[in-house]
Design brief:
The protein is an alpha/beta fold and about 425 residues long. The chain contains 13 helices and 17 strands.
Length: about 425
């Protein structure tokens, strides 16, 4: 069974990026710097954008952060970094947006959490204030519901109603329904205040894989708003990568999702751009978008006791990522190229033939020769200690001779480097 048809959603313009409609699924990320630190935040936004994040969200949690936002935007513009900035607001967003119009203007979108925008009688007034600011500055909003900060009045009401049913649902099912209802009711209220449906993106984030799948399947069936996918806290390392992939791959396979974020917890002093690369790899391995040539490498076994193929695979992958910003500006279609670096004769030649360009290195006890296959045909056999440099030159030659030059004026957002 292949990919199901993409769910029809309304396109939302965020800066120069379109989320939803027929636009490619957008990759986004979020800084973890103190937004009040203009230099560090601008640097991290630039790094995330360079890695391929097409939207970058920043925390706006207090006066100092709100005052810093326009200066962050100025620094980025001066460097030629035009990635749209999304402001993440909780609790006092209505005050910060109202009292800092330069902040409101510098942001391309506002994220509003209906679970903590205000409580009881203040909720509607403060939510309305944020929507009014968005309308004044002609900015779209993401209404982002989290199960960790769900509107408790709504949750309690639905729980009470559920207890009166002949066949009550589980508490988990009621919580899932409360997430969806909170998002939809908030979106309806935003429209009552004058916001168009194509200015609204919805999200209902949880940190449990099965709950995320159930919630988004429900939400997608009940509206045509653009949807932002992601676990609210995926976790660290392989756990976070696996959880995000398991949840989002199923939804994307069902045609659900217009923009994704992989919320990885970085190691101390870890590279924040990892979450961007993982998001791109999810989309690319599912055949939904292409960002950077994929390198296929065998996992190794007793036939590959040498680490030559492992080192070469890593070196080639790093080389491709470094070259991609140049290639994407110069050539059309290079992001879809496939490269194979294999370790022995068992699957090496076959896998290499399936790639645009591949090399099959000798396994333990095999002749010290490495045949190279280009578009399925064996073209040359490499020997000696300079395999890596020779193969990189062949990859460069392949790019130069197989992909047409890109017109200088054409934008390349969909082939952003990873």
């Amino acid at each position: 069974m292949g990919l199901l048809a993409r769910r029809t959603s309304l396109p939302v313009k965020v800066g120069d990026v379109i989320v939803g409609g027929t636009a490619p699924i957008v990759v986004q990320s979020m800084t973890n710097t103190d937004t009040a630190d203009v230099a560090r935040t601008a640097d991290q936004v630039e790094a995330l954008a360079a890695a391929g994040s097409e939207l970058v969200r920043i925390t706006v949690d207090r006066e100092d952060a709100a005052r810093a936002v326009p200066f962050i935007r100025e620094r980025l513009d001066a460097r030629g970094v035009n990635v749209p900035l999304v402001g993440d607001f909780h609790y006092i967003g209505h005050k910060l947006l109202s009292q800092h119009p330069a902040c409101a203007e510098a942001l391309a979108k506002y994220r509003i959490n209906p679970g903590n925008v205000g409580f009881r009688e203040k909720r509607d007034r403060q939510f309305s204030t944020m929507i009014e600011v968005a309308l004044k500055h002609q900015r779209p909003v993401r209404i982002g519901v989290n199960w960790g900060s769900l509107d408790q009045d709504l949750a309690v009401r639905l729980m009470d109603e559920n207890r009166l049913q002949a066949t009550p649902k589980s508490a988990q099912e009621v919580t899932q329904e409360a997430l969806v209802v909170s998002a939809l009711q908030s979106a309806a209220r935003a429209e009552e205040l004058g916001m168009a449906a194509d200015q609204i993106i919805l999200s209902c984030k949880v940190s449990d894989v099965q709950s995320l799948i159930a919630v988004y399947a429900n939400l997608a069936s009940r509206c045509s708003y653009a949807l932002h996918l992601g676990l609210t806290e995926a976790g660290m390392g392989s756990k976070g990568i696996v959880a995000s992939t398991a949840a989002m791959a199923i939804l994307l396979q069902q045609g659900i999702g217009d923009t994704i974020r992989v919320s990885l917890t970085p190691a101390p002093d870890g590279d924040r751009t990892e979450e961007v690369i993982v998001a791109q790899q999810i989309l690319q391995t599912m055949g939904l978008r292409s960002f950077v040539p994929l390198v296929t490498a065998c996992p190794g076994c007793g036939r590959t006791t040498s680490t030559v193929f492992q080192r070469l695979a890593e070196e080639i992958q790093v080389h491709i990522r470094r070259q991609m910003p140049v290639w994407s500006r110069q050539y059309e279609g290079v992001e879809a190229m496939t490269v194979a670096v294999m370790g022995c004769i068992v699957n090496g030649p076959g896998e290499s033939k399936h790639a645009n360009i591949g090399i099959s290195l000798p396994g333990t006890g095999e002749e010290p020769a490495a045949p190279v296959f280009i578009d399925g045909e064996k073209t040359i056999t490499l020997r000696g200690t300079g395999l890596a440099e020779e193969f990189k030159r062949l990859v460069e030659d392949y790019v130069r001779t197989h992909y047409p030059p890109r017109p200088a004026a054409e934008p390349s957002r969909d082939t952003a480097a990873a």
